[in-house]
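hey can u run this one w/ adenosine-5'-diphosphate bound, need the structure tokens asap thx
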Amino acid sequence: MSQFKTIRDVDVTGRRVFVRVDFNVPLTPEGEVADDWRIEAALPTIRYLIEHRARVILGSHLGRPKGDPEKDARLRMDAVARRLARLLEQPVLKADDVVGPDAREKAGSLKDGEVLLLENLRFHPGEKAGDDAFARELAGLADVYANDAFGTAHRKDASVYVVPRFFPEGRRVAGLLLDRELTVLGQLTTQPDRPYAAVLGGAKVSDKLGVIRALALKVDKLLIGGAMAYTFRLARGYKVGSSLVELDFVDEARRLLREAGDRLVLPEDHVVAERPEAGAATQVCEGDFPDGWSGVDIGPKTRVRFAELIKEAATAVWNGPMGKFEDEPFRAGTEAVARALAECHGVTVVGGGETAEAVRRFGLADRLTHVSTGGGAFLKYLEGATLPALEVLDPA
Ligand code: ADP
Ligand code: MG
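ok here u go:
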């Protein structure tokens, strides 16, 4: 149970329900949907509304439009609408504007059980600006507001933060995906079963500092991999060759090492490559890295150690790849962590754009308790920050 009213708590039959979804999907060079898992994740909400004979109006952003109609044309929602129609096995209407005449006309003539997808919300400058007038117009299309876009919950964009204010109390609810995200993530923050292990990786310490600090106080083991491990390694006095490091954060890393003590588990060995690209010579390194070589993955001993700690956890959360996993030769560490999570009998939660992608690429997503659709929002939530989009929903 999450702390917000959901679409189940409001009468939606015959009503126009605006759902802020996260259809920010990757596209192929031809402009087709390359990966539809975010669309799939929103289907329970959309199906529920169709079954309950609501008039469904969906809105999402897609990519980062620059305001140049020609360049932005590939960010139109048509391909997404086509994919959604295929997944729903029913027609999906598509508006060619966000709050313009086409959207108003199509929203106004929707029938019970029909679905309309608005044009890319970010085509309207009012979306990113959190503009009141734009939000009022968008709200004017519908009778009920539902948010199902956890991935943008940390932002103050109009469609997540301002639009709900134009709906009466009791009609600003969470969708089923948002509800599930908050229910599962809530388990991580309030009395998680122990031992509780967190695995953090990815490119930069600076991106993850807040979450490292917050988790260091909560978990029993905080495993650090990925490129950010090299800043810690530097803080311990080792040479890291040409690895990605953030010199500005070495002091902070030293402080964290001191404060977190043996809860913080750093890799004992690393895979280093002569150049950080597939095909380069590699070796496993336990001490100083050779001059000019770069760390690209956690080493074999570390994979075993991390897997042990993950498998014995009652709660495990993971964000950030263990290495440059996009290159096949540097994938083993990330895959070992993903497999250990799949084999863990506790609650297992993964979040972050690249991390979720890795888990799906290994075919392991179904073996985890939850793969979050959030990246930045997921990290903010784990930090304990309040997410703006949640402040404006009606409490349960
Ligand atoms: P997420 O999107 O899951 O939050 P991040 O964006 O923080 O993850 O980091 C993902 C990126 O980190 C990946 O593209 C990966 O290639 C990179 N990365 C991880 N470890 C290394 C490394 N040792 N060297 C270079 N890049 C790395
Ligand atoms: Mg990322």
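The chain has a mean pLDDT of 96. anyway lmk if its weird
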